[in-house]
Design goal:
Blueprint: H1 2-6, E1 15-17, E2 20-23, E3 26-27, H2 28-35, E4 39-43, H3 44-57, E5 62-66, H4 73-82, E6 85-88, H5 91-99, E7 107-109, H6 116-125, E8 128-131, H7 134-143, E9 147-151, H8 177-186, E10 192-194, H9 205-225, E11 231-233, H10 251-268, E12 275-278, H11 282-285, E13 289-300, E14 306-310, H12 319-323, E15 330-331, E16 341-346, E17 355-362, E18 370-374, E19 394-399, E20 402-407, H13 412-416
Parallel strand pairs: 4-19, 5-6, 5-12, 6-7, 7-8, 8-9, 9-10, 10-11, 11-12, 14-16
Antiparallel strand pairs: 1-2, 2-3, 4-13, 13-14, 13-18, 15-18, 16-17, 19-20
C-alpha cells in the first residue's frame, strides 16, 4: 500500500505489472538494461498534459517554457507542438529554442547580464526582451527595433529556499520600483511589466501578493505618465511535490487563482486587461521525469543508518546537496513489495554530502536492483556536472511502450576530448 501511494508522484502513465514499474508502457528494468543507468526517463504524455493544463487554465496567454529547467530540443519540440513558447537567458538556451522550432515571437529573453550576442540575436528573431537594469535599457534602445518589458522587483519574500527567491529587496534580478519608474519615463515604448517572485512555490500567498502589487504599480505608472502595460508577465514558480508530505497544487488551481486575481486587481485599479505571459519550468517537466539507478553496496553504518549506494548522485542531481531537496524512491523491480525498513540513499561520489535521500522506506535492497526516483525532470540534468570525472547520464523519452534517446550518455572519451595535455608522454 505504501508503494502504491508513492505512484502519485510518478508520471501520468505509471503502472505496476507483475511487480514491475512501467513508465509510458515500458518496463523500467528494460529501460535500465537497454540504456544503462543512471538514466532520466521522460514521459511524453505527462509533458503534453502539463502543457495543455496551462493553456486551458489561462486562455489566450503566452506560456513560455522555462528552458533552464531542462534544456532539451526534443522536449521543446513537444512544447512547440502544443503551442508553447520559451523563456531563455543565454545564447545557448536561445539556440535550443530556435532549433526546436520555437518562433521568435514566442520567445522571452531574460538574464541579469545579457551578452551583446544574446541581445542582437534576440532582436533579429523578434523575441521579447525583459530589461534587467537601466544600463541594459540604453543598450537595447541603441540597438533599435527591440520589443521589451521592464522587470520590477517588488520586495516580496517568497516561502521558498533562499537561493531561488527572486523578488525580495536586494535581489540581483530586476529593477527596484523607483528605477522601474525611471525606465518607463525614459522608454514609454516598453510593452509591459515583468515580475517573478521565486521558484518552487508551494503556497499561494506570495504569488497573489505579487499580482496585487503589480496592479498597484501599474496604476502608479498610469497616474505618473499616462502609461499602462499592454503585457503583464507573472513569471513562473509553481512548485513540484517531491515527497507525499509536501503540499500540492494542480496547474489548474494555481494558474486560475493567479489569472482570477490579476483580473480582479486590474479591474479594481481601473486598468484595461493586459496580455498575460507565464513562464513555467519545473511544473511542466518535473513529474514527467524519473531517474533510474542501479543499486550497488548496501551497508549498515550504524544502528540508525543503513546506506543504499547507487551508481550516480550529486553529479546527476545536485539539488539535495544545494537546496536540501527531498526525494523518495521505489525499487522498480519490486514495486509492489512492502518496505522492510528505512534506508539512506547515497551517491557514489567522494563527498560525505552526496546523499540523494536521507530516509526512504524500501523492501530489503540487493545489489543490482533498479531504484526509481520520481520528480527528477527539472534541474537535475540541467544542473548536472562531471564531478569525479563521471560522465552525465542519458535521457530517454517514453510513449506507448517505446523509448528513444533524446540526449545520449556522455562517455569518458567525451571528457578526455576536452583536455589539452602539455609536454610529451
Amino acid at each position: 500500500m505504501h508503494e502504491m501511494k508513492l505512484l502519485d508522484l510518478f508520471p501520468d502513465t505509471v503502472s505496476v505489472e507483475g511487480g514491475e514499474l512501467l513508465l509510458g508502457g515500458a518496463r523500467a528494468t528494460d529501460l535500465a538494461r537497454e540504456f544503462g543507468t543512471p538514466v532520466v526517463v521522460y514521459d511524453e504524455q505527462t509533458l503534453r498534459s502539463q502543457a495543455r493544463a496551462y493553456l486551458e487554465a489561462a486562455p489566450g496567454a503566452l506560456v513560455a517554457y522555462g528552458t533552464k529547467a531542462f534544456p532539451s530540443i526534443a522536449v521543446s519540440q513537444i512544447f512547440a507542438e502544443e503551442g508553447l513558447g520559451a523563456d531563455v537567458s543565454t545564447v545557448g538556451e536561445l539556440e535550443f529554442a530556435l532549433r526546436a522550432g520555437m518562433p521568435g515571437e514566442r520567445l522571452v529573453i531574460h538574464g541579469n547580464n545579457k551578452e551583446d550576442e544574446l541581445l542582437e540575436r534576440s532582436i533579429e528573431v523578434g523575441a521579447l526582451i525583459v530589461l534587467d537594469s537601466l544600463d541594459e535599457l540604453e543598450r537595447v534602445r541603441a540597438a533599435g527595433g527591440a520589443r521589451f518589458l521592464v522587470r520590477v522587483t517588488p520586495g516580496i519574500e517568497a516561502d521558498t529556499h533562499e537561493a531561488i527567491k527572486t523578488a525580495h529587496h536586494g535581489s540581483k534580478f530586476g529593477l527596484p520600483p523607483d528605477d522601474a519608474v525611471e525606465a518607463i519615463r525614459r522608454a514609454p515604448e516598453a510593452e509591459g511589466l515583468h515580475v517573478h517572485v521565486g521558484s518552487q512555490l508551494m503556497h499561494f500567498g506570495a504569488a497573489l501578493m505579487t499580482v496585487d502589487w503589480i496592479a498597484q504599480f501599474a496604476a502608479r505608472l498610469r497616474a505618473d505618465f499616462d502609461w499602462t502595460p499592454r503585457i503583464v508577465d507573472l513569471g513562473g514558480g509553481l512548485g513540484a511535490r517531491h515527497v507525499l508530505e509536501e503540499p500540492s497544487f494542480t496547474v489548474d488551481e494555481f494558474v486560475r487563482g493567479m489569472v482570477g486575481e490579476l483580473q480582479r486587481a486590474f479591474h479594481l485599479q481601473g486598468l484595461p486587461p493586459a496580455q498575460l505571459i507565464l513562464e513555467p519550468g519545473r511544473s511542466l517537466v518535473s513529474r514527467a521525469g524519473v531517474t533510474l539507478y542501479t543499486v550497488g553496496n548496501v551497508k549498515r553504518a550504524s544502528a540508525a543508518t543503513t546506506y543504499v549506494t547507487v551508481d550516480g548522485g550529486m553529479s546527476d542531481n545536485p539539488r539535495p546537496a544545494m537546496y536540501n531537496a527531498r526525494y523518495t524512491a521505489v525499487l522498480a523491480n519490486r514495486a509492489d513489495a512492502e518496505p522492510t525498513e528505512a534506508y539512506t540513499v547515497a551517491g557514489m561520489h567522494c563527498e560525505s554530502g552526496d546523499v540523494l535521500i536521507e530516509r526512504v522506506e524500501l523492501p530489503t535492497p540487493q545489489r543490482g536492483d533498479v531504484l526509481a526516483v520520481p520528480v527528477t525532470g527539472a534541474y537535475t540534468l540541467a544542473m548536472s556536472s562531471t564531478y569525479n570525472a563521471v560522465p552525465r547520464p542519458a535521457a530517454v523519452l517514453v510513449s506507448d511502450g517505446k523509448a528513444r534517446v533524446i540526449r545520449r550518455r556522455e562517455t569518458v572519451d567525451d571528457l578526455l576530448a576536452l583536455e589539452q595535455p602539455v609536454g610529451g608522454a
